[in-house]
Amino acid sequence: MFIPRVKLCVLLLLTLSVTVLGQNALPNAISNAAPGSAAETTVLKLEHFDPNLIDQSLSPCDDFYKYACNKWLTANPIPADQVYWSTGSSLEVWNDNVLRETLEASSKNDPARGPVQQKIGDYWAACMDESGIEAAGLKPLQPELDRIAALKSKKEITLEIAHLHHMFPGAWEGSDNQTNAPFFGFSGGQDYDDASKVVAQLDQGGLSLPNRDYYIKTDDKSVETLKKYRAHLQKMFVLAGEAEAQASSDAGTVIELETAMAKAQMDNIKRRDPKNINNKMSLAQIRELTPSIEWDVYLKAVKAPASDHYIVSSPDFFRTEEKLLVERPLEQWKTYMRWQVIHRAAPHLTKAMVDEDFDFFAHTLAGQEQPLPRWRRCTRAADRDLGEALGQAYVDRAFPPESKARTIEMVHAIERAMHDDVESVTWMTPATKEQAIVKLKGIEDKIGYPSHWRDYSSVKITRDSYLGNVEQSSAFEFERWAAKIGKPVDRGEWTMTPPTINAYYDPQLNTINFPAGILQPPYFEKGMDDSVNYGAIGVVIGHELTHGFDDEGRKFDAQGNLRDWWTAEDAKQYDERGKCISDEYTQEVSDAGPGVKQNGMLTQGEDTADNGGIHLAFFALEAALKTQGKSLDDKGPDGWTYRQRFFLSYGYSWCSNIRPEVARLIVTTDPHSLPIFRIDNVVSNMSEFAQAFGCKTGQKMVRANACRVW
Ligand SMILES: [Zn+2]
Prior knowledge:
Elements: E1 8-9, H1 17-20, H2 38-41, H3 64-75, E2 84-86, H4 89-106, H5 115-128, H6 130-136, H7 142-149, H8 157-167, E3 184-190, E4 198-204, H9 213-216, H10 220-239, H11 244-264, H12 274-277, E5 280-281, H13 283-289, H14 295-301, E6 310-312, H15 315-327, H16 330-345, H17 351-366, H18 374-398, H19 401-424, H20 430-442, E7 444-448, H21 466-482, E8 504-506, E9 511-515, H22 530-547, H23 568-585, E10 587-588, E11 597-598, H24 600-627, H25 642-652, E12 656-658, H26 660-669, H27 675-684, H28 687-693
Parallel strand pairs: 4-6, 7-9
Antiparallel strand pairs: 1-8, 2-12, 3-4, 5-6, 8-9, 10-11
Helix pairs in contact: 3-25, 4-5, 4-18, 5-18, 7-16, 8-14, 10-11, 10-17, 11-15, 11-16, 19-20, 19-22, 19-24, 22-24, 22-25, 23-24
């Protein structure tokens, strides 16, 4: 769903693949088992922190990631239906199995079912009905193709855009934290200057590939990928009923239009500064910017209430889109819209469509060898479309009150550590420190699940059309966001579903959010001592908290307004420290192919959060041990000191095998660094780590010019 708001999370944004990789399933978790085997149909065991996996033939001071992960990495190759496999992946399988049990139980056509069960159960039944979907063929798509074919003038395009946006509003998970909706994105979102207001927001969009680089870059690999995309377009048009020659020409038209839009987009580094996207316009100015789009018609069709003003993230993009709308004939736009409909609907249609979509978006772009089994694709689709209906049963099953209580305790301990850290740093003046403390105290902690569940009663879900159900729930979400315009902000709302294995900081709401899905092993273990929990979920909590004070988050105040509360001198001091981080992380990435380089300016916020998060979790552990009459250098279970266990648990929580195609995708589009850097760069900046393993100056894990912000 397109949520036009900065949201800073902890895991690789591979969730972008919900739409970008076409399969409508995250390309992550997996079952190690062959399809149909026993392991596939039972809830698998979870990974647990295990010090026996440490490779003691290696030196922790040379490459800590290898030391902590080597044995695990060797024993856990990437299954064919995955693009990466990490210690968190068995949790993904486990979560999917828990959801599946609920979905299956709800799908029995029992008159005693409640309204929530009816929706999730029938959604599941329709998605799993492969023979019904096959028998229907292209029929569910035909009305959409007919609508487009019937357009008689460019004037009519506006209404069709509104219609397409209902069905395909785009995904906020987009690699650049932007929409991939057809033409452009539209939604309600908090105003940057007054976070108490919800205003209309217009964002660049229109692409089908993961980001603008895929259309623009001229290196061999990029040229080859675009060639394969063209072949894919052609095959999809043929599958949708076109003759070869027409399909070939249509593929060229789509590439031309999408490339022109890509060129006009603001790049993902520039978008990291909220000032660059905070462009306020009146309705009159928008009309003037893009006269070819009839805004009165559009706004009425999407049921958008009147907005105080409109935020246009990238006026240049809209200027170019206007030029294209004027210059290009209606027939070309019909081709573009036909492609958008076929492409977005493909994962919910026949096997031929699903397979071809998989072949390009998951196999070619991400290296995935096989699709996820159907049941896992349906589980994930249900979570995406009806997440807060399905999530209620997940919480009942997987998130007991004791887990919530212990998480809250850790969050409070880490917030105290941040408070002490702000007070003690020497580079900030008292005036800025005071403001930082106000912001810290204003953060609301949201743990596990929302206090009020979303009401899906207006969404019509039936057992007989999977695509219809997806369209219904997309339209519901799109209109729900648009309807917020002009209404008070709801701070209690979540933008991740309860089973999600991720967490986020929302700078405009000033909240940290930890879904129940990540509060499970190996990130959070009820039976483990504090050193293991602080090393894994504690660092995640510290990471989210730090986002309020990273290069992007620090620009928002306690109320979520984009307001500079820093003295000029403190801001300069901050930027110097941030530059140390971005320089450190600008590095070659051999895992992603020759010549691929990570841009530290793209990852600076996430890297700052990783480095700050681990410090905060470490200090909180130290304080927790003190209250138990213990110290960091006491021996814990298994003969390792608590200090060592903290770092070993941190390393373990990130062990990941990643396909090179995905490594490349992450490096070029994702603001998070690859797992190896999230371990090795972070620990090499910490004297606390050197002390844990006796590392000396000159060794690789002891950085000569260590960086430190928080
Ligand atoms: Zn993050």
